[in-house]
């Protein structure tokens, strides 16, 4: 995995579809290009939703972690 | 020679961008009046908007009733229009499940489960839709047939009235077209 630093954490615990990606769409424009946003989610759908979101919006999922019942997805702003 | 190729390339690029269905856009016809179908259309619409797509929702026939504001009173309706007004659900929170409605029990159950599992309610989704710039077009003909007036509809930031050509123009340049 490439090195990255987390610039912002988006707490989406307890939020269900479509809220996690809605929140991401509102948060990403505030980030600088190259920033990595960490999303913490309890929604299993997020595992496939975020890569799909990233692909359509031209961003990139750089890492995914699953620990202690939480899903952590790291999305990097590419443009 | 090189200039010619560049020119042709630029022309082709422009044509590519102009072709129908090229825009990152979703056009949806909301024809059904059932609660479950309204929830599905809102989740898809807000999801699409969250993914950077332009979204247009064309509410027609039974779907139009969901846009009524239960707090607004409107006069000037003839007898048939008044009847329609009474028989149609007064707004999105009065719509029913398309199956398992079970005299109201099923509908109440699904709303309860959604709340328990923290799924956004229809009210919340309409709010988000407004924030995300999702456009709603009301079918003029449906409103006319069912005697629904513009003044009795909800306040929504991006709402207009239109006909079939309005929808088709949007649909023709969309990459996704849906009928719910």
Q: What characteristics describe this protein?
A:
heterodimer; A: 79 residues; alpha+beta; Translation Initiation Factor IF3; globular; B: 180 residues; alpha/beta; Hypothetical Protein Ychn, Chain: A; five-stranded parallel β-sheet; 5 strands
Structure notes:
- The complex is a heterodimer of chains A (79) and B (180).
- Helix content of chain A is 27%, strand content 33%.
- Chain A is built from 2 helices and 4 strands.
- Chain A has a 4-stranded mixed sheet with strand order 1-2-4-3, covered by helices on one side.
- Chain B is an alpha/beta fold and 180 residues long.
- Chain B has one domain (25-179): 3-Layer(aba) Sandwich (Hypothetical Protein Ychn, Chain: A), CATH 3.40.1260.10.
- Helices cover 44% and strands 16% of the residues of chain B.
- Chain B has 7 helices and 5 strands.
- A 5-stranded parallel sheet of chain B has the order 4-3-2-1-5, with helices on both faces.
- The radius of gyration of chain B is 20 Å and the shape is elongated.
- The A-B interface holds A 14-19, 21-22, 24-25, 52-53, 56-57 and B 24, 43, 46-47, 49-53, 117-120, 128, 132.
